[in-house]
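Tutorial, part two.
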Amino acid sequence: MNILVLNAGSSSLKYQLIEMPSQTVKCIGLIEKIGTEQAVFSHEKNGIKKTKKLSILNHTIGLKKITETLLDAKIGVIHTVDEIKAVGHRVVHGGSKFSKTVVVDKEVKKSIRALFDLAPLHNPLNLAGIEIAETIFTSAKQIAVFDTAFHQTMPKIAYQYAIKNSFLKTYKIRAYGFHGTSHKYVSEKAIEYIGKKSKNIISIHLGNGCSMSAIQGGKSIENSMGFAPMNGLIMGTRSGDIDPSVIFYLMNTLEKTKKEVYHLLNQESGMQGLTGYSDLREISEKAENGNEACKNALNLAGYRIRKFIGSYTAVLNGLDAIIFTAGIGENSALMRKLACENLTFLGIELDLEKNNEHSKEIREIQYSTSKVKILIVPTNEEIEIAKETYQLLK
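Running the prediction step on this input gives:
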């Protein structure tokens, strides 16, 4: 079964065509900087990657370009769109309604739309990807895989907020957790790699969006994101944890509107707010060249991760392994170093030499004396989406 996996971001569109159940990746690609005249489109087949810049002003144009490429006589992998039997879509917020992967219908789309306000950077584009795909891959099943589904195993003690019970019961206001597809994939890989000594795991997903999960016996029991994917760690443009009083101060004293505060915390905060840059590679480079704001931002981000490691170790009542994953987690030796500083009392001892090595495979980067394994596990949300899509349809 050929499954096309689509992951629509605010200005990007990732895709993979995967043959299941063999998990054979026939091609992989990415469009970045959608909405500009200088969008970057890369497509890889059989290890050969081609990249070019072109005008892609919206996601509809982007998906049509991807389709043209899949059908291309030289670099394509299919002869007709009917060869694609299913399109698996990453959807960030599924609320309390979706605890598993589903076939998309009118009701599912309505539910995704109802959660726009809770995931404004993601759900609108996730739904747009679905609706565009429906017009192109007309004979394929459209499948939604929710980031929140993996975290439906969180106990009430972890997901309930200390507000009136009626808000939970009537309006489902609670912590949901995010990046579940990634946390599920890497934790399963870690358990497979380590074996039986992997009951208690902390998974650290560091990209433009960042989150951490406490995983016990393969199940999520805590996640640093909550009602919406904005709190917890410091992110590219999102603030992470902030005292709610600050929001009231911004509105009442500084006379910011609700819309302005919402935009500020989602798109003008985090690393962007602290440094003027959202890309960690650029921030790290400027920090090395003496930029004090960038140095400060990196230290703040590392400190926040360490706080969560400490609290999650307490929640788990012990720790067997830490996982670093996603773009920053897999590639930034500096951020891994900052995240593991001064944690020897927990048995966490990072080997700086191993940490600076490069590999695309799962690997350990702790000292031999470390009681806790420190792993880099490359995530592959697309494979996980393909697996769940295939399991639903087979």
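The CA atoms of residues 128 and 379 lie 24 Å apart. In part three we will examine how such features are distributed along the chain.
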